Amino acid sequence: MSNDEYKKLYEGLSPGSPGYKNIPFAFLTGGGLCALAQLIKNLWLGTGLEETAASAMTSVSMIGLGVLLTALGLFGKIARVAGAGTLVPITGFANSISSAALEFKSEGFITGTCVKMFTIAGPVLVFGISASVLYGLILYFLL
User: Fold this and answer.
1) In this structure, are residues 34 and 88 in contact, taking their beta carbons and an 8 Å threshold?
2) How far are the Cα atoms of 2, 50, 112 from residue 12, in angstroms, in the given order?
3) Which residues of 74-112 are buried (b: 16+ CB within 10 A; e: fewer)?
4) Would the CA dihedral through 94, 29, 128, 40 be positive or negative?
5) Are 59 and 90 in contact (CB under 8 A)?
6) Range from 37-41, 64-68, 121-125 carrying the lowest mean pLDDT
7) What is the pLDDT of residue 54?
8) What is the mean pLDDT of residues 123-141?
9) d(CA 23, CA 31)
10) Of 12 and 135, which is predicted with more confidence?
């Protein structure tokens, strides 16, 4: 099969992506999640927390929201409509970890929930920690 024949076969079998519909939904959902996070931060600031504590509590709140929506089965429904807009880093990451944990809970707490949860989180944590150490060393030696 030539490259042109393969390309025709691939294009014929692949469903088209309605970008004209997906892009605005992703934009509005991602923007809505960010606006919600700002509202939550303002609420935390209103309780008298300092800026850094309010930021940390906002992160915790958004993670909790992502896990709650996943546990209730709503995150997937929102993602089907909103697409990439649900991948705002903190809620999307919370969904990926909690959905893996929920999916394999029948295999037991350790071998199911914990192992599968860190199958997703492990590479992200390793990369994040390694990158922060590397950046820290670079800053230490350059400054």
Assistant:
1) yes
2) 15, 56, 39
3) ebeebbeebbebbbbebbbbbbbbbbbbbebeeeeeeeb
4) negative
5) yes
6) 121-125
7) 96
8) 85
9) 12
10) 135
